Amino acid sequence: MQTLFDEATRSTVLARIDRMQSGTAARWGKMNAEQMLAHLVQSLQMSSGELPTKSKRLPIRFFPLKQLIVYLLPFPKGAPTARELIPGANPGTVEENKRKLAQKITAFGALANATSWPEHPAFGRLSARAWGVLTYRHVDHHLRQFGV
After folding, report:
1. pLDDT digit string, tens, across residues 72-108
2. Which of 21, 28, 131, 140 ranks highest by number of CB atoms within 10 Å?
3. Cα angle at 11 between 10 and 13, to 5 degrees?
4. Which domains, and CATH codes, for the chain?
């Protein structure tokens, strides 16, 4: 199972991010390239605890739904996101967001042995392993959305 805590996986993801360009069309969804990259920056900030999010009391917080979604089921296209992770009207340029996202992914990789994690707004408490897998799967989902 791929995780952003694996150096080779991070390197592959960073190379994919580097291929993103302004004007790259999404295969699905409403976000443009700038917004998607800004969204991923915000999601990494959430994962590391830099960006607090409001907790939602959803059935997916509990076994077995949480494990199925985090580790197994494909991410649905157009799924709702936390309000805090919706990019604003001026998300920044693709190049700015690529740089920020690369920094956040590298910093996230250093958290592999962290014992304290923020609560995920939809899934609640997650282990370090679950955060690494879920964060990889989220980034991968959006990179595939833009064909990289």
Report:
1. 999 999 888 899 999 887 899 999 999 999 999 999 9
2. 131
3. 65
4. 7-145 (1.20.120)
